[in-house]
Known about the structure:
Elements lengths: L4 H6 L11 E3 L6 E5 L5 E9 L2 E9 L5 H16 L4 H10 L3 H16 L4 H15 L9 H12 L3 H21 L30 H9 L4 H13 L3 H6 L5 E2 L4 E4 L8 E4 L2 H11 L4
Antiparallel strand pairs: 1-2, 2-3, 3-4, 5-6, 6-7
Helix pairs in contact: 4-5, 6-7, 9-11
Amino acid sequence: MALTKRMIDSMSYQGKDGQRQVSWDDELSGFGLRVYPNGKKAFVLSYRIAGRKRLMTLGTYGQYSVDEARKLARKYLVAIDSGIDPLEARQKDAQGETVRDLCLAYIERHAKPHKRSWRPDQLRIDRHILPMWGNRMAKSITRADAASLHSTIGKNTPYEANRTLSLISKIFELARRWGFVPENQRNPARDIDQYKEEKRDRWVNPEELPRLAQAIDAEPNVYVRMALWLYLLTGVRKSELLAAQWDDIDWQRQELRLGETKAGRVHYVPLSAPALAILRELAAPGR
C-alpha cells in the first residue's frame, strides 16, 4: 500500500528495545517512513550501490509532505542509477575541509615550492588566521569574516593587517582552483579597503652611525648581532637574507646569490671583507 498522510498520522512506534521500525511504500521501491521510539517520523530511502546496502534519511515528516519526499526519493534514485551515492555525497559536503586543511595545503603545495621566504606566511597563518578560523569550513568564510579579521589586526598593526588580507586573498584563490571551495564562490578578501600605507624609507645619517654600531654590538644574542651587521653590510632585504643558504655564497668570487628577488630575477650581491668575516664565523664548526 502506498504511504499516505492519513496512514502516517496514525502510525506510532510499535518496536521493542529501540529496534528499527520502517513502513515501506508500495508505489516507489526503497522509499519508506521510519518511526522512532520518541515518536519522531522521518522519510528514508533504502538502496544498493557498489555492492553496499545503504539507508538514507531524506527528511522528517512535517519538513516534507509524503508527495514531496517521494519526489525527492525519485531524484536520488536517478542519481544512484548513474553511479552516484547520494549519502556519501551528503556526508562529504557536510564535512567539507577546514581552513586549517586549506592553510596546510597552501604552505606545502604553494608557499614552500614557490616562495623562498614562505616563513612569514606561516607566521601570519599561525598568529592571525588559525586562531580565528582554523576549525571552520573553508567554504563558510565570507567577506564579512575577512573584513572583521582585517579590522581586528589593524587596530594595532595596520600594515600587518594589509599583509594578512593579501595572504588570505591568495589562499582562497588557490582554494577555488584546488576544489576546497565551490568554483563560483567569491574570494572573501576581495573588495575590502586596505589601510593607507606611507613610504617608510629611513636612512641613517653620519651622526647616528656610531650610536647604531654601539647598539648592535651590545646585542647579547650573537646571531641577532651578526644578522644586523649583515643587513647593513650587504644592503639586502630581511626576507632575502633569512632565505639565503650556504650554497648561495661564492667564497672565491666573494658574492651572495639571491635566486628570487622582488624584481623576479637572479641578483648577485658583492660581499665586503667584514661581511665575509662574519659569514665565516657563522659557518665555523660548533656554530
